[in-house]
Write a structure and sequence with these properties.
792 residues; mainly beta; 22-stranded antiparallel beta barrel; 3 helices
Length: 792
């Protein structure tokens, strides 16, 4: 429970927010897009990207910020037919954004080798996801659908000074559009393969000279790429309702801007289940011909995900170069999901699960701008609670056995920060910043075995009515506190208006905590007294924060009258106390079960290079506005564990890999724009490549994805006096490549090397359940769809 001290702090923060609201000013705001009168991208796209971003919490040109950033405007996203946040990974080097295993809505994000794919509370994401100014504390419902987007920014490298804890790999900022000053209405639709049918409508209007209101709604549907042959329902389908409402109040003369936004998303898609790689060892459930088909038999609780929140951003120009900002937010989400690990009809490692999250946050910033000195000081607070409950239904000699686990994590974190840039000359600038964070984590972990009940022993949380509780094996409550200072310094040199060189050092840390799936009965009896003491259990379940210290050199430039622009960055990072969460088979009370084990087993170093470029190959050859461009995004990364103590206590770093971190990420887009009749045609084609990708720290012949190439193409025709009409045709994964994105594996393996231990007959041995678990999830197959948009 959040105590009296917290309630007082909440009251103080929101009183402050209310006072700020009486002062505030236009959202040249922290993450707000530029006003409609100052478009985010240059009028001539062929001149190369000149996007206004807020990577340093103030508006700056993409080409002049000494940070490795990829920025994509809403117009660009529309041209490539982007559907959700995961579509951004192609255009950002060394970036992985994907659906987390058996979900449609939970995000797994990795940048420069850092991330977290386990969605249970207690494990923090290593990449900060921001919806406008608001940090999303949990990955559930974070696969944000793209509508009413001004731009998306991907910041690579630690962002611990300006963005705080849990941005040690980077941050992704989803920035929505400001409301226009005049009445506006737009409609966008799509129809295509697998009966994809999307519709998005937006309306906004001014009320008087100072108030604007807007509302948007989205309906996104698609049949499944495959079928659940056991349950007769779709697999990999989409069934989403989403909406957003915005009120903006602005008094330009006095410098006041207030923006209040509410959003809601409801995902009613069918559960997404995996594809078995070998026949079931108990039932003989076959390997299916279509990798998107499944034989999973679990369908309770009914898959149901909803998320929503409210935020208020207030900005006040105080005069003398000072600006005050306040960002207040509340968010809540809940995900019911059935996870069938073995993907067979039998009750064998079937996991009904629920995730519940709620957060409140408050941020204050005081900015200063002058000819030579620019920067800000600030304060941030987050109070969050995250809980999960899941049954593990097992096929054992005990009828209707359920191994139940509940985890509850309460987080309170507050920080003070500052970041300033001083221009010694128009060519030479120094940026210095730092953040001091106080982090408190309170955890509750409960594990027990149940028997009986109509739903194979499921607990009442999932509609069951077990007849016998075999007793709690773990009933743990713990608290941990962490403090950390994270600095950043960068020196930039601009020899002229076309080039900028920079060198930077930055740090970030990711919160520690307790493994919410851990078992107290697995804790070692360190003092050999025959009793597992509270402290022994505490030490076993706890893990320390991660820390990344990163050095970066960069060059951003343009040439040939900006017909050629580029960004080049090289980095070296020291990664300390790397958190290695995992889940293993375990024995509790003589019964096979499912436990988590998390350690700070490693330290690592990460080296890499990133290049982004845009070249205008031809311009004006077929009339005004005609051009041909080539855009590239290249990432190379060489991560290596320098120390990794394995489960046997031995050094096993030579056998461990970085998960979800391909050594090479390459993408090239050739695009042409031609005036045709009353409008213009934009045609583009993108080829992208990702090298060998490991799903976990141990290489797996079942789960790892060899290098693969995807090919997309887009054709758009825009017409009307102000380009208010458009039609498009989009093709994704044209060659219909099958590529693995995630999976589960519970098979006997060598404890040190992780190599699968095969039987004399060439088979495998299950470590959890009886069917043998090696199931995988695949990326989207070939999709072709048409789009249209109307803007008034």
């Amino acid at each position: 429970m959040i105590g009296t001290r917290t309630r007082k702090l909440h009251a103080a923060l929101y009183t402050g927010a209310a006072l700020a609201g009486l002062l505030a000013a236009p959202a040249q705001a922290q993450d707000a897009p530029a006003p409609a009168s100052a478009p985010a991208a240059a009028q001539d796209d062929s001149a190369g990207p000149d996007i206004i971003i807020t990577a340093r919490r103030r508006e700056e040109s993409l080409l002049k910020v000494p940070v490795a950033v990829t920025a994509v405007t809403g117009a660009q996203l529309e041209k490539i037919g982007a559907v959700d946040l995961t579509d951004i990974q192609t255009v950002s080097p060394n970036t992985t954004l994907k659906d987390a295993r058996g979900t449609n809505s939970t995000l797994a994000a990795f940048i420069r080798g850092v991330g977290q794919q386990d969605p249970v509370p207690g494990f923090e994401a290593g990449i900060g996801i921001y919806l406008d100014d608001v940090y999303l504390n949990r990955p559930q419902a974070a696969v944000l659908d793209i509508y009413d987007v001004d731009r998306i920014e991907v910041l690579r490298g630690p962002q611990g000074t300006l963005y705080g804890r849990n941005t040690i790999g980077g941050a992704v900022k989803y920035v929505t559009k400001r409301l226009p000053d005049t009445f506006s209405a737009s409609l966008r639709g799509a129809y295509g393969s697998y009966n994809q049918a999307d519709g998005i409508i937006s309306l906004s209007a001014p009320i008087g000279s100072m108030l604007r209101v807007g509302v948007s709604g989205a309906r996104l549907t698609r049949d499944g790429f495959g079928r659940n042959l056991t349950l007769g329902i779709p697999n990999y389908n989409k069934d989403i309702w989403a909406g957003r409402g915005t009120v903006e109040f602005e008094t330009p003369d006095s410098g006041l801007f207030v923006r209040i936004t509410g959003d809601y998303t409801h995902d009613k898609s069918a559960p997404r289940n995996g594809h078995r790689l070998f026949a079931g060892m108990l039932t003989g459930s076959p390997v299916l011909a279509n990798v998107y088909d499944t034989n999973a038999g679990l369908n309770f609780p009914k898959e149901d995900v909803w998320a929503g929140g409210l935020s208020m951003a207030v900005t006040a120009k105080l005069g003398g170069g000072f600006t005050l900002r306040s960002i207040s937010a509340w968010r809540k989400d809940r995900s019911f999901t059935p996870i069938d690990f073995d993907a067979t009809p039998s009750v064998d490692v079937d996991v009904p699960a629920v995730y519940r999250n709620e957060q409140t946050s408050q941020e204050f910033q005081l900015l200063y701008a002058s000819d030579k000195l620019n920067g800000l000081v600030g304060f941030y607070y987050l109070g969050a609670k995250a809980a999960t409950g899941f049954d593990v239904l097992l096929n054992t000699t005990l009828a209707n056995l359920d191994a139940y686990t509940a985890g509850d994590v309460r987080t309170e974190t507050s920080s003070v920060f500052a970041d300033f840039t001083y221009d010694f000359t128009p060519q030479l600038s120094l940026s210095v910043g730092g953040r001091y964070t106080w982090d408190q984590r309170k955890s509750f972990i409960y594990k027990a075995n149940f028997l009986g009940g109509p739903l194979f022993g499921a607990t009442s949380e999932f509609g069951g009515n077990p007849t016998l509780n075999l007793g709690a094996s773990t009933n743990f409550r713990g608290e941990a506190n962490f403090k950390r200072f994270t600095p950043r310094v960068s020196l930039s040199f601009k020899p002229n208006g076309n080039h900028m060189f920079y060198a930077s050092y930055s740090e970030g840390f990711k919160g520690g905590g307790f493994d919410p799936r851990g078992s107290g009965t697995s804790a070692p009896d360190v003092n050999q007294d025959g009793v597992r003491s509270y402290q022994e259990i505490y030490n076993y379940l706890a893990f320390k924060p991660e820390v990344v210290k990163s050095f970066e050199l960069g060059w951003k430039g343009s040439a040939l009258d900006r017909r050629l622009t580029w960004s080049l960055a090289g980095f070296h990072a020291n990664y300390q106390n790397v958190q290695i969460p995992g889940s293993v088979a375990c024995i509790i009370g003589g019964v096979q079960s499912f436990c988590g084990i998390t350690t700070n087993a490693a330290k690592a170093r990460i080296n890499g290079v990133e290049f982004e470029g845009n070249a205008v190959l031809a311009r004006g050859f077929a009339g005004a506005g005609s051009n041909v461009t080539l855009s590239t995004a290249i990432g190379y990364i060489d991560p290596k564990y320098e120390s990794y103590i394995g489960p046997t206590g031995a050094e096993v770093s030579q056998y461990r890999q970085f998960q979800n971190t391909p050594k090479w990420t390459l993408a090239g887009t050739l695009a042409a724009n031609l005036p045709v009749g009353p409008g213009s045609i934009n045609a583009s084609t993108t080829v992208s490549y990702r090298s060998l990708t490991h799903q976990f720290e141990v290489a797996s012949p079942f789960l790892d994805q060899p290098g693969y190439t995807l090919w997309d193409a887009n054709l758009n025709y825009t017409f009307g006096s102000k380009g208010q009409y458009s039609i498009g045709l989009h093709a994704k994964n044209i060659t219909d490549v099958r590529y693995k994105t995630a999976g589960y594996q519970y098979l006997a393996a060598n404890a040190a090397t992780g190599a699968i231990v095969y039987t004399t007959a060439g088979g495998v041995t299950p470590t959890l359940g009886k069917e043998g678990i090696a199931t995988v999830f695949y990326g989207n197959p070939r999709q072709v769809f048409g789009t249209f948009s109307l803007k008034f």
